[in-house]
Amino acid sequence: MISQETKQIPDTLLLEERAGHVLSAIIGMADEDFGYIPFFAANLMEKPAFLTHGDWDYGSSHGRLVDALILARHMTGDERGRDIEERYRANFLSFFKEDGLSYRQINPKAPWETNANLIDQRAVILALTSWFMSTGDRKIKHVADKHVAALKRIAIKEKDVWYYPASEYTVNGWPSTNAVQLRLAPDPAAFCGRLVMPLLKYYELTGNMDAFELCQFFSALIVHRSGVFNPDGSFNDSLAYRSGHFHTRIGTLDALARFALHTQDASIIHFVKKSYDWALTRCTTFGWTPGDMHEQAFEHETCSLVDLISTGITLARVGYVEYWGIVERFLRNHLTESQLLNLDWVVGADNKANDDVGMKSFFNVAERTRGAFAGYSAPNDFCCNVSGGRGHTNDLQTCCIGSGTRGLFMGWSNTITEHNGTISVNFLLNRGSRWLDVSSHLPHEGKVELEIHRSVPRLLVRIPEWAGYAKVEVYRELGDSVRTQTGSEPSMWVNQRFLALGPVQAGEKITLTFPLSERQTIEKAVGQEFITRWRGDDVIHLSPEGTHHPFYNNRKIYEKAPLRSGQYRRLQEEFYW
After folding, report:
1. Which 8-state DSSP code applies to residue 287?
2. Which SUPFAM superfamilies match (predicted)?
């Protein structure tokens, strides 16, 4: 951590501050009466609201939350809840059997089976990778190596593809040899495709070739043999493919994009871009996604949005720079709007008299969930209680709390990037770094301030497409020296969207200004239309309004951005996902 002083900063979106809020919810979800197993879901509309356990409590929830805690602490330096985190980590490690896989546990009040669910294993290797990346703990590497070896060992291997013939593996092996003989690979995106993302990162960290082989053969399965994605890029909506389930489809695209970047495979990038562009046509431009294409179509998972964010970032990194702006709209709008900060509307209980230990708790639900992300939400409402689909289900889910944290981290860690000496400011969000601080006055003013800490040979700043170029102005101060530039000057722009500021010197302060766009769009979500008012990349009004915990319409806009005392987190060394 680089020492720094508190200063006046714009009171606008600060992702590391949001990570501090979600850290509170991650800690609050622990059930101290049930071995500190986290609750999986919450129903906030009931009076009183309640938390519930589920069969996802084990490898999935613990993996997601351990990963999220590591990312949130990296963003914030916040040490609250270390005792709870240690319980999560101990629980997490206790779920492994000698075969290297993580198994669901017996709940005496529920009919859940003790199996190694393949969806859980993705969260497991995700957490192990973040854990090893953040600590270098060789014991965790041993657990991870054994886990990866097990994932490879149980895969059914054919000439050019590998797959899993069931969604659960048991201590006695696959449930049916017939499934193997008939090649009954259940939803390859959910059980194979999404695994590629954490496995690839683990390979990059450790050189584990088992992990790389799994990535290679699972990617080939998805692209060439699975049928998950149709030739035009659309999602296969057959029942066997989970009705085109968005979280697992887009999570698979995220994994494929990363693998393509690593292997420099342009054909896979093309495959990903085609499907990603199709997926965007089913989402709103502010970031609401359908749950699937049929039964869950009305239910947005924060998980799906984070997959959109991550895939868009990778596509932007390989050269499709237009996705930086798309991702910033997701970060500014539905990701942060889906974070539960105001709980005045939640009715809770102040005692545990009616709790069913191991299954349900009514105790202090609002206090325990503040900072969590929506589990299933409507475009205009935190609670999805529409007539279509399955009606009202869960308002919070642990998977979405973990994913929401990862979405904050992906935005935060990619706001300022370095490559071969060039520093790029990709998102116009508040962010500190060892090179420079970014102070964003958006959406109140079209104004961004850069405070340079280290001299760098080349600085690029992305300017939103709606800002144009001729009226962009640059004001540069260094000591007593002042100079101005405009976006209309020759050779000021590269990669279509980036303002090239050339070399910058330590101590320099650069102020960029540009006109703000105010516009109105009609957004479509599963047959419904929403009139959306924008100021820059921020939604400031949505109609029709929600009824339970409405989104967007409480955002306040001022002529000048309000300021507050604060500081940005600047790290000497950072890790990236």
Report:
1. S
2. Six-hairpin glycosidases (SSF48208)
Are 230 and 287 in contact by the 8 Å Cβ rule? The answer is no
pTM, rounded to two decimals: 0.97
Domains delineated in the chain: 25-413 (1.50.10.10), 417-441+446-515+561-566 (2.60.40)
Q: Which helix (H) or strand (E) holds 481?
A: strand 481-486
Q: Residue holding tokens 């994913």?
A: 403
As given in the structure block, the two tokens for residue 4 are 């720094």
Note the pLDDT of residue 64.
98
What 3 state SS string does 26-92 have? HHHCEECCCCCEECCEEECCCCCCEEECCCCCCHHHHHHHHHHHHHHHHHHCCCCCHHHHHHHHHHH
C-alpha neighbours within 13 Å on the C-beta side of residue 92: 28
Burial of 478: CB neighbours in 10 Å, binned 0-12, 13-18, 19+? middle
Burial class of residue 184 in the structure, from the number of CB atoms within 10 Å of its CB (0-12 exposed, 13-18 middle, 19+ buried):
middle
- Write the pLDDT tens digit of every residue in 364-416: 999 999 999 999 999 999 998 887 878 888 999 999 999 999 999 999 999 99
Sequence-separated (6 or more) residues with CB below 8 Å from residue 181: none
Our CA dihedral for 71, 72, 76, 78, rounded to 10 degrees, sits at: -120
Q: Report the distance separating Cα 4 and Cα 566, nearest Å.
A: 10
- Is-cis flag, bond preceding 48, omega within 30? yes
Q: β-pairing, 168-169 with 422-425?
A: unpaired
What span, in angstroms and rounded, lies between the C-alpha atoms of 55 and 104?
7
Q: Write down the pLDDT at residue 44.
A: 96
For residues 295 and 345, give the distance between their C-alpha atoms in angstroms, rounded to a whole number. 28
What the block records as the tokens of 2 is 């680089």
pLDDT at 388: 80
Tokens in use for 441? 């006055």
Q: Determine the average pLDDT of the residues in 85-101.
A: 98
User: Which pLDDT value is given to residue 57?
Assistant: 97
Predicted confidence band at 3 (pLDDT cuts at 50, 70, 90)? low
Sign (positive/negative) of CA torsion 111, 117, 123, 125? positive
- 290 contacts 528 by C-beta, under 8 angstroms: no
390: number of Cβ within 10 Å: 14
Say what the pLDDT of residue 4 is.
67
Mean pLDDT of 130-138: 98
Q: Buried (b) or exposed (e) across 332-342, using 16+ Cβ within 10 A?
A: bbbbbbbbbee
| Banded model confidence at residue 345, pLDDT cuts 50, 70, 90 | very high
Q: Are the C-beta atoms of residues 454 and 528 closer than 8 Å to each other?
A: no
Which one, of 359, 356, 275, 337, lies nearest residue 52 by Cα?
Answer: 359
- Could you report the per-residue pLDDT of 67-88, keeping only the tens digit for each? 999 999 999 999 999 999 999 9
Query: How far is 312 from 257, CA to CA, in rounded Å?
Result: 9
Q: 523: left (phi > 0), else alpha (psi -120 to 50), else beta?
A: beta
Q: Is the pLDDT of residue 272 over 80?
A: yes
- The pLDDT score that the predictor gives to residue 387 is 78
